[in-house]
Structures are given as C-alpha cells and as structure tokens.
Amino acid sequence: MIADIIKEAEHKMDGTLDHAREEFAGIRTGRAHPAMFNKLMVDYYGVPTPLQQLATFQVPEARTVLISPFDRNAMAGIERAIRDSDLGVNPANDGAVIRLNMPQLTEERRKEYIKVARHKAEEGRVAIRNVRRHAIESVQKLLKAKEIGEDDARNAEKQLDGITKKRVDIVDELLKAKEAELLEV
Fold first, then answer.
1. Top-tier CATH class for 2-25+106-183
2. Are 71 and 51 in contact (CB under 8 A)?
3. What are phi and psi of 42, to 5 degrees?
4. For residue range 14-59, what is the model confidence (pLDDT) as tens digits?
5. Cβ atoms within 10 Å of 117's Cβ, excluding its own
6. What is the residue extent of each domain of the chain?
7. Cα torsion at 141, 12, 41, 175 (round to 10°)?
8. CATH class name, domain 34-101
9. CA-based radius of gyration for the chain
10. Does the predicted model carry a pTM greater than 0.85?
11. Which of 42, 63, 85, 106 is deepest in the core (most CB within 10 A)?
12. Three-class SS string for the chain?
C-alpha cells in the first residue's frame, strides 16, 4: 500500500514538473521558439482553438517566426490573437504566411519575465509540496487504521521527503536556466 502511495505521488510530481517545463517554455526570451504560442487561443469560426492546431511554425532566424496557417480564412483570427497577446509583437501578413519579428527585449521587460518565471517556479514548488502533503496524509490514515506500523510510516515520509526534494531541485534548476536565458543579450 505504501509503495502504491509513493508511486502515485512520484507520478503526480512528474506531471507537475512537465507542467512547469511547459510554463517556462511559454515565457518569451530574446530568441524565437514555437513554444511561445502554446497558450495562444484563436477564434476560429466562433470556437476558441489552440494556435498549434491551425498552423505550422518555422524559425528561420533567431528572432523571426513564420506561421503558415492550414486555412487562409484563419489568418485574420491568428493575427488578432497574436496582437492581443502579451508577446509584444506585431504580426505581418503577406497573404500566405504570418511573419513575426521578435524585438530585442528591454532590460525592464527582461526583469518582468524573470518575475513571471520566479512566480511560475514557486507555483511548481507549491504543487509538488501539495502532492507530498496528500501522500503523507494517506500514510497517516493507514497508520491510524493500524494497517501499517509507525516505522513504515516514518520510512514512507522520509522517502516522500527525498522524492519531493529532488523534484523541487529540478524546478530550481529550470528556473536558473530560464533566468540565464532571459539575461543573455
């Protein structure tokens, strides 16, 4: 039973790490990359649709993105979604593709993005600790029901603490890498 609780906690923590990686990928840096558009929703025939489902992305240069819509009728909606987003770019439509030239980040904007990254890292840490707390509560319930002994409960808590520390350290490493990427000129 304890092994199942620990395995489930590890699985949930890994899911939280994946989510944190996605969140970090969505933060704009000086370089262009398609992951910046992961959260962008486009009004496509009245239905909010993720941009990835409507177009392909190419990054021919470090600060240029070409978006090729599958349906040309979606171009206006894609342009509007990009313009209204917090990316700070102005799309240029040439009839076949939408070209985005990513401006160089200002020092002020870099600091804002670092704050966002730190906030997302803290959210990830809190989510991992919540998984740990729920797992420990499950172990405590087993202890109260006298299905396991105190030594087993203590060992399970130590295992959960170790797993949690590893995952929190990974989030910290992701944050450090993102900060370095943001400060790179």
1. mainly alpha
2. no
3. -115, 140
4. 999 999 998 888 777 767 778 788 888 999 988 999 988 999 999 8
5. 22
6. 2-25+106-183, 34-101
7. 120
8. alpha beta
9. 22
10. no
11. 42
12. CHHHHHHHHHHHHHHHHHHHHHHHHCCCCCCCCHHHHCCCEEEECCEEEEHHHCEEEEEEECCEEEEEECCHHHHHHHHHHHHHCCCCCCCEECCCCEEEECCCCCHHHHHHHHHHHHHHHHHHHHHHHHHHHHHHHHHHHHHHCCCCCHHHHHHHHHHHHHHHHHHHHHHHHHHHHHHHHHHCC
Calpha distance 90→153 (Å, rounded): 57
CB atoms within 10 A of CB 53: 10
With a cut of 50, list the residues of the chain below it in pLDDT. none
The Cα 65–Cα 72 span in angstroms is 17
Beta bridge partners of 100: 65
CA dist 144 and 133 (Å) reads 16
